[in-house]
Amino acid sequence: MKIYLETERFILREILPTDVDGMFELDANPIVHQYLGKKPVKTKLEVKNVIQFIRKQYKERGIGRFAAIEKSSGKFIGWSGLKLNLDKKEELNGKRDFYDIGYRFIPRFWGKGYATETSLAVLDYGFNTLNIKTIFGAAEIENIASNKILQKIGLQFINEFYFENVKVNWYELKKEDYETMS
User: Which domains does the chain have, with CATH numbers?
Assistant: First the structure.
């Protein structure tokens, strides 16, 4: 899978083994993991395993998170994309076999509209290329920025639930609602 999506400022492509340094900068940062279970990676070997897992999703599920590459600099700044949750252990808010949208960026790139821009391209890809009927999103209640992004890109609040003893907001966007937004 070599998916390439393009926005005004980004190329979204598959995450490659050569992205290990950028992924390490991203996932070793405790600030990035503040609302992700507070478990940043400690070694590049852990990152290599994460990249391997994502690449396995591309092969087995036909989708995964995409590396966000800044056009102006060619830098890896994080990722944005869809994930297909299939496994029973991946059940979330009582759902299984669903697509969820996610994004994660290195902090120096926060607050510039990058998550919104890349997520809109990802939604378009999910609905118009993959013909997905519903895309979900989740964010810890205290993660105000992520909740705002999910709402800004059109996902609708459904309910709150607990995940690993943390209160989380659950959102969804149906294809027919997305089409009326476009």
Answer: 5-128 (3.40.630.30)
